[in-house]
From TrEMBL:
It comes from Haliea salexigens. Residues 27-243 form the Aminoglycoside phosphotransferase domain. It comes from the Bacteria. This is Aminoglycoside phosphotransferase domain-containing protein. CDD domains: ChoK-like (cd05151). Pfam families: APH. InterPro entries: Aminoglycoside_PTrfase, CcrZ_PhaseVar_Mediator, Kinase-like_dom_sf.
Amino acid sequence: MHERLTRALQTWRDWQVEGLQAAPRPLRPLGCGLNNHSYLVASGSQRFALRLAGKKLAANPAWQCTEWQALALAHRAGLAPAPRHLDTNAGVLVCDYLSPDANVAENLTTVGALLRRIHALPQLTPGPTLAARCEAAASAVRYAQPGTWQQLQALAARVGPLLTRLEDTGPQGLCHNDLLRANRVTSGGELWAIDWEYAATGPVWFDLAAVCAGDELDSPARRALLTGYLGTAPAAPDWQRLNLFECGYRYLELLWHIETATDPAAASLVEKQSRLAQCIDATDAH
């Protein structure tokens, strides 16, 4: 990884940055996820976030290009940091680094408003449908962990009919698709969206469900999020759409957890299955 970072820093003359006089130096890791590695790097007073793509993202240059396009659109709208460099062959993305404000309590109404502005951006190439993403993840689990898949078949059978309804439910727009707490930062008094790896045109209610389920928001927080997004208090059909998309998100999250974890904790799997089952029950009740 050190050699890869060194090679990425050596491309600094190709970065779209005015006045960059010297090669940036690494300061510290920004995060080491299951797929990608990010670093804070600096040249003089300028700071950047440099991401080295993991195998899955590095093998998909089209995903990287879509992310770059989404970042550029969002930056021009004041929603994301400026993208500075993309090398799809090396799997390198460089953006401005946004220094987080200290001691800021997040307002979920503001998060909802941020999502509304993201969804108003020009649309890009549609990504795979949620049903297709789930099927790809399910196939990987069936192949690699047939015993675990056997345990999931009852849930999979229940969620399958719901997935077919999702793509035609609600409007489409440019979606971030992963705007969880870790991918939101308040800097300079403004809320920004970072890490646009999964950005694509798709159903906007998936974005809302991802925040609610991914951050495990309670009922008041969900109401604040939807109120900020809709500009008014959510009505019964809004809650029903949210719950439907939460089923899809939780199923995809469960499959992704099984697929990527080398040894998924049994307790975590049971909890995720239970929450998915509760979502399906709530949807069936409507």
